[in-house]
Protein: histidine kinase
Amino acid sequence: MLDLSKIEANRLDLDVSEFDLVVIVNDVYAMSSMQAKNKGLTLLLENNLGPSFWTKLDLIRVKQILINLLTNAIKFTESGFVTLHIDHTEQGVCFKVSDTGIGMTTAQIENIFECFQQGDNTISRRFGGSGLGLSLSQQLAIMMGGYISVESELHKGSEFIFNVPCKQYPPAKVASEAAVSENKTGLVGRVLLAEDHSDNRRLITRFLKSTGLEVISVSNGEQAVELCLSEFPDIVLLDIQMPVMDGLSAFELLKKCGFNKPIFALTANAMEGEAQVFVSIPQAGGFGMNLQRASQMIYYNNDYSLQNRLQSEDRA
Structure:
């Protein structure tokens, strides 16, 4: 809803950068594979772009659209398969997400990109969700000069087609390790911080920003889950005890949704019992880690990990 409000107020700007689109597609596929596997579905990837396709678009928004389309396809498919297909077009690139799910009627298709629409109320009650995802994805696609269309047959399945204009560029030169090491004060990445205590939230945010990180801060687990699935931070820091939804519940829900970025628990009371509860959970990133140690775990675009330049401080 935050992004939709910004779009309506003309305050959402695209952040265009040069990146390898194939890397992003593979990342989204890997992220969605767990969600599909948990439902007993087969997730297929058909890549006709080749091993690499460097272009200039808003990386985060492209990723956001693809994750939303795949998440919906998996959600509304009880059996069979979901396919992510990507190919060249004369204007740029075409993504197709097809499924063997419940499908839609013609009347449902006409309203599918409207806010708070999910075909009908029965679908909303059965599958959950607010119906905002497709509306936001369509608006983001239009901002990038593209468009999302849909073809569907009731009880047979649906296919969402996302066309976006773009050019292919020669592979970008990746900064050398020497160049990275010269930047001894700045880290790169986005952190989502969930902490209900306002003073702690401000203090932790200030520290993280001082290292060069971008910080998204919220006050409860429910907000954390919503923004994780729309903003896709590189790392998540969750306070364990929060109102509305605690950190452990938020963690479990994110994993069910296929979110695979590192998640760390923060607490001022790192008691042995609390620690054991969290570290016993598969895929949990860590518990009660100091912020310097946690911040070095940021990953940028799933390709380049930060230098472990804080190890000496941990040993001190």
Summary: The first helix runs from residue 2 to 8.
